């Protein structure tokens, strides 16, 4: 069972002692991501994630890496649209080292201009690598068409122009604006002495004072309407993404959405996978997944296929949606999906990193944490009525968004595609 407390400066702390493991996972979560940016500084959240590893007043970049490697630990970070996380997994007797490195990176990073210039090249190469992967590009294109000029449409990596335009001053200004105690959650799971851990965290992070208040989330929710976007690229496969309006993170029907997704396209036993790949063999990769944000969400369907199968696939997808809207699912399908969801969740509980991540992200973005028992109970409560409510909310073909990467040499194919999704 987790415990929740605050340091004297307001940093939220989530701890859970698991005495039968030998590891500890610690994550420092920051409410900073690409939706807090604009077109001029797009990519700054991700850039700061990189630059905090590039040296402090006390450690070089090599020192940071070597000190974690030398004790068999793992350290990394990631940036999303709504948060950034720095995390370490380490043996329990080295937790003080992990905490010291994280606080050093947070408080003493130098933002050295030479390192910034070098890292610009690294990130631009990361963008280049990303642009060589059409399966990745198509998901960003979908965000672009679903959210249009809304901040959620901005790519996490930024673009070459916005990265080149970033300066040390603009990065430090952004850092000071969002890296404040009120915007931070520290989540620690593993074999810990919770009382001593809190004292150590207070000593290392409690001295950090802020004159600012947590920034009000004055989000304007996007309006999602039908749109189509494409990137012409000479590829063997066509990469297709369809986007429907989903649910926000705090929706009461979030577990009904997950159950629905398992049945529809979220697993190898799903209707789409079995129909498209196993029965017809017209696509190697096909799946669906929900993305949830504070105030909105997307339900995405992806397929990678030969362009000649595009019309047939599109008809199958539309027919499956219509079938679900007309006849919903059987009790057996719902039961199996719920068991699959619970099984995946319970297996994840055996991993300290998964528990740390679940607690940290939930507290940061939702200001609440569900216990494992509460989550299992929520899954058990999913029924035909709650799934019907989700179906009525998200499977609105009139607002479907289409994104694809590849080449359609026959212009009539694209016209036919649009007509299919108008039905």
Automatic annotation (TrEMBL):
Pfam families: Peptidase_M16, Peptidase_M16_C. Residues 12-158 form the Peptidase M16 N-terminal domain. GO terms for molecular function: metal ion binding. Residues 165-341 form the Peptidase M16 C-terminal domain. InterPro entries: Metalloenz_LuxS/M16, MPP/UQCRC_Complex, Pept_M16_N, Peptidase_M16_C. Belongs to the peptidase M16 family. PANTHER family: METALLOPROTEASE (PTHR11851), MITOCHONDRIAL-PROCESSING PEPTIDASE SUBUNIT ALPHA (PTHR11851:SF49). This is Insulinase family protein. It comes from Senegalia massiliensis.
């Amino acid at each position: 069972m987790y415990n929740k407390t605050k340091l004297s400066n307001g940093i939220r702390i989530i701890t859970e002692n698991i005495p039968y493991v030998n590891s500890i996972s610690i994550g420092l979560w920051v409410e900073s991501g690409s939706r807090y940016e604009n077109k001029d500084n797009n990519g700054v959240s991700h850039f700061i994630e990189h630059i905090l590893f590039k040296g402090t007043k006390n450690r070089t970049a090599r020192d940071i890496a070597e000190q974690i490697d030398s004790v068999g630990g793992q350290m990394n970070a990631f940036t999303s649209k709504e948060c950034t996380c720095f995390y370490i997994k380490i043996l329990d007797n080295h937790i003080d080292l992990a905490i010291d490195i994280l606080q050093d990176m947070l408080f003493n990073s130098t933002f050295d201009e030479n390192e910034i210039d070098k890292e610009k090249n690294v990130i631009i190469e990361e963008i280049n690598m990303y642009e060589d992967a059409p399966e990745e590009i198509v998901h960003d294109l979908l965000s672009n068409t679903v959210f249009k000029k809304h901040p959620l449409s901005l790519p996490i990596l930024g673009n070459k122009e916005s990265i080149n335009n970033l300066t040390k001053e603009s990065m430090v200004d952004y850092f000071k604006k969002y890296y404040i105690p009120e915007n931070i959650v520290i989540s620690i799971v593993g074999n810990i002495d919770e009382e001593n851990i809190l004292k150590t965290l207070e000593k290392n992070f409690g001295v950090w004072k802020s004159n600012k208040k947590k920034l009000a989330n004055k989000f304007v929710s996007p309006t999602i309407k039908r749109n189509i976007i494409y990137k012409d690229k000479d590829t063997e496969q066509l990469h297709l993404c369809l986007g429907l309006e989903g649910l926000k993170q705090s929706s009461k029907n979030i577990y009904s959405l997950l159950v629905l997704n398992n049945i529809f396209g979220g697993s190898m036993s799903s209707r789409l996978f079995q129909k498209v790949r196993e029965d017809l063999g017209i696509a190697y990769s096909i799946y669906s997944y929900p993305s949830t944000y504070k105030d909105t969400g997307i339900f995405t369907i992806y397929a990678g296929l030969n362009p000649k199968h595009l019309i047939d696939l599109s008809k199958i997808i539309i027919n499956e949606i219509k079938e679900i809207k007309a006849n919903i699912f059987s009790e057996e399908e719902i039961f199996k999906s719920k068991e699959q969801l619970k099984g995946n969740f319970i297996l994840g509980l055996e991993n300290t990193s998964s528990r740390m991540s679940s607690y940290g992200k939930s507290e940061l973005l939702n200001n609440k944490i569900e216990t494992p028992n509460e989550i299992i109970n929520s899954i058990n409560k999913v029924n035909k009525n709650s799934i019907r409510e989700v179906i009525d909310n998200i499977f609105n073909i009139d607002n479907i968004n289409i994104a694809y990467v590849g080449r359609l040499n026959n212009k009539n194919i694209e016209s036919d595609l649009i007509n299919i999704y108008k039905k």
